[in-house]
Amino acid sequence: LKEELLKSIWHAFTALDLDRSGKVSKSQLKASGGAASPVLSHNLCTVLNVPHDPVALEEHFRDDDEGPVSNQGYMPYLNKFILEKVQGNFDKVEFNRMCWTLCAKKNLSKSPLLISDEDAFKVWVIFNFLSEDKYPLIIVPEEIEYLLKKITEAMGAGWQQEQFDHYKIALNTSREGLSAWELIDLIGSGQFNKGMDKQTVSMAINEVFNELILDVLKQGYMLKKGHKRKNWMERWFVLKPNIISYYVSEDLKDKKGDIILDGNCCVEALPDKDGKKCLFLIKCLDKTFEISASDKKKKQEWIQAIQTTVNLLRAGSPPPHKEARQKRKELRQKLLAEQEELERQMKELQAANENKQKELETVRKQLEAAAARAAEEEKKRLQTQVELQDRFSLELEREKMVRQKMEEQVAQKSSELEQYLQRVRELEEMYKQLQEALEDEKQARQDEETVRKLQARLLEEETAKRAELEKWHVQQQQTIQMTEAEKQELENQRMMKEQALQVAMHQLKQLELERKEALEQYEEVKKKLETATNNTKSWKDKVAHHEGLIRLIEPGSKNPHLITNWGPAAFTEAELEERQRSWKGKKATSE
User: Can you tell me which residues the record assigns to a coiled coil (predicted)?
Assistant: First the structure.
């Protein structure tokens, strides 16, 4: 979207008047130029629904501006404060018309054309759509051919390929393509639409404009069944990539509704009913639309066009004309890259060929010089050969004599050599024997070293064990001494305990005797007590009989009676405590 907007803005910007220094004046870019003057920034903000900020323009504009495609001056302002804020909620036709108004008067040809100003405007917008993405803008011959074919097909005429090929050849020899104004002159000249009236050409341009710019894939009159009244009304239907709009007439002034298309929609053919023919059904998520075409051909065309649009929505693909334009551009880029690669290879081959030619010329000169030197050397060689033959004859005789002497010397030397070789073999044998003896001695030394290390290790182990045994012996002696001392101490304790036991046995026997004596005393006291009790009882009976209910107070025991295993104790508690203190004192003395 940004690139499409930039192309139209580029035309408007380049059409602005220049000051004396050849630069675009600020008054033509900001909103201070007055209502009558063509103010670019203010108009852009108006048609694109973007808030205008003249202060930002003042800060960003510089005198070295080169247009909206430059990286300085007006371009930063255009990107940051206008293009980046565009939301898409603007009228593209109105935007293009504003830019056209700024540039058409200055650039449009003054010569009469076979097309109207409105048609020239539409051709200009189509040019911006089909032109290359580089500045200054041009349309290449392939896109010119595509546009002229579309216009010719819309007019219902035949395409003259041979005529365009001649034009293309003439164009390629002078330039890469045409500007927007040259394209308008080409179409307005009637060169490729001869025999067609002005109205037919205008209708064809309008049809191509609707398809390429307004994304109109198909349009025409059909009958639509109402949702409330169920009546059939003729409407002008316009199919776009994601919507079908229907109007009262083809002037598009009174819009009656939209059919929103998405990947869930479908279109089905319906049988004839209620007197209506060529029926088909468009199913959407919330509504269903019944439509009647004028004939079976129109019905099939509409069904196919709607189904294709739905399939593109499901696949997320652009409209066919935009996809075709992108493919053509990619194909041109590919061919251009291949051509550049081919030219590069040709240049490399040409350079390599020139280098080879230079090398061959150098080699040829070297061969000629070598041939001259060879001829001179051959002459010298023949002369030298005659001299050498004479000298060789003399040398040959001398060589024979020398050879005889040498043979004799060789025989003598051979004999000496044989003796020398025999001596060398004997020395080698002695060397091998010495090597073996040295190896045996080395092995013996290694074995001796191993045995010595083993004896040293055993001696260390024996020393360690002896030290450990001595340590154990000392510990055993200490343990025996400690055991003897403990044994003596236990023996003393045993003797003391035996003495204490004997004392305790003696005391026990004494206590037994004392207990027996106490028991005998107790029996005597018991008998006395029984006698006294009997006497007291008889006395109580007498008193009670003679004196009535008189109660006698009997003296009781002041101390509680002690009970032992053998019966009531014969001594008091105080006496028992005295005896216990006595026993404890004796026991402490014995210990």
Answer: 321-542
